[in-house]
Amino acid sequence: MISIRSFIRYTALGRILMIPVRFLRFGVPRLAQELGYFLRWSCASKEYYNWTYDLTPLNRDYLASYIAVVTGHEVATIEGYIRELENDAELRQRLRQQTLSSPDRHSCDAEPRYGKRLGWYALVRATKPRVILETGVDRGLGTAVMAAALYRNQREGYPGLVFATDIVRDCGHLLVEPYRQCCRLLIGDSIESIRKFDQPVDIFLHDSLHTPEYEWGEFLAVEPRLHEASLVMSDNSLMTTKLREFAQRRGLEFLYFQDQPKDHWWPGDGIGTAFRLGTKAFFAGAKSNHPG
Ligand SMILES: C[S@@+](CC[C@H](N)C(=O)[O-])C[C@H]1O[C@@H](n2cnc3c(N)ncnc32)[C@H](O)[C@@H]1O
């Protein structure tokens, strides 16, 4: 007499009978959870693109470790910078006010959810860049966060600017003083803007048109402005291998961090970084092993 366990495990009929059982046991709870996320998000959020979300606590901790490896700083230092942004009530309040007074208030959520941008902030605080070039501004959440990091760097004696490109003229409603003084908008096609850009770039971040061809075009356009220790980042490494290929071309390390959104249906974006191990700070005079 064959046992039920053996029947399921070793017979073709057992495998067929398990199909509805597996669906009810594993599929239905998962679908119910996803449906819950969708229903809550559909009612509570106004966003219809460029989703913002918080990270799960575990994912946030892993983000700190990732940025520590990329920058060559201690994890505790990076965690301190992440907490600094999370606890910056003034920035949060200004971002909220900007959204609520913007014509975009019906399609944007007032509460800033930084997600992966916690990592961008910590990276800028740790490395003290002089020049960041970001492509793709949209509402300006990433630009505002990096400008806030530069503003704090400036007050510590390490001034820097984030140049941010977008093809949409009225982008960046979140850019507000005093952080805005650390930011310059370049309106127009980003490859065109990069080609005209004439300063050495410490950090380059691709977050504009997410096709492999366009991403690669940006990397080639910025290449003459990069130096030995430049960090090159992409918000598109979830979808393409272009930054990994660019890292190989330049003899750089490549690492990818995958976001894990908290209570959100979106599976998450991520941060790709091409970097040289050991870069700690760009600004001459900062605690650094960068040649300057
Ligand atoms: C994903 S959003 C940027 C998100 C932003 N970095 C953030 O942190 O929220 C992409 C942006 O790229 C812009 N964009 C698309 N094609 C572009 C192009 N050819 N040149 C410049 N910007 C472009 C879009 O207008 C859009 O605002």
Give an overview in words.
The chain is of the alpha/beta class and 292 residues long. The protein has two domains: 4-40, no CATH class; 50-275, Vaccinia Virus protein VP39 (Rossmann fold), CATH 3.40.50. 45% of the residues lie in helices and 15% in strands. The chain is built from ten helices and seven strands. It has helices at 4-10, 12-44, 57-71, 75-86, 89-100, 117-127, 141-155, 190-196, 212-222, 242-250, and strands at 131-135, 161-166, 183-187, 201-206, 226-234, 253-258, 270-275. β1, α7 and β2 (161-166) form a beta-alpha-beta unit. The termini are far apart. The site of S-adenosylmethionine has 17 residues, from α7 and β2.
- Provide the CATH top-level class of the largest domain: Alpha Beta
The largest sheet has its strands arranged as: 3-2-1-4-5-7-6
Radius of gyration equals 22 Å
Number of strands: 7
The number of helical segments is 10
* Low-pLDDT residue spans: 288-292
- How would a textbook summarize the main sheet? 7 strands, mixed
Helix content: 40-55%
The CATH architecture of the largest domain is 3-Layer(aba) Sandwich
In one word, what is the shape? Answer: globular
Ligand catalogue? S-adenosylmethionine
The CATH superfamily title of the largest domain: Vaccinia Virus protein VP39
* Average pLDDT rating: 95
What is the third-level CATH name, the topology of the largest domain?
A: Rossmann fold
Number of domains: 2
Terminal residue distance: 78 Å
Structural class: alpha/beta
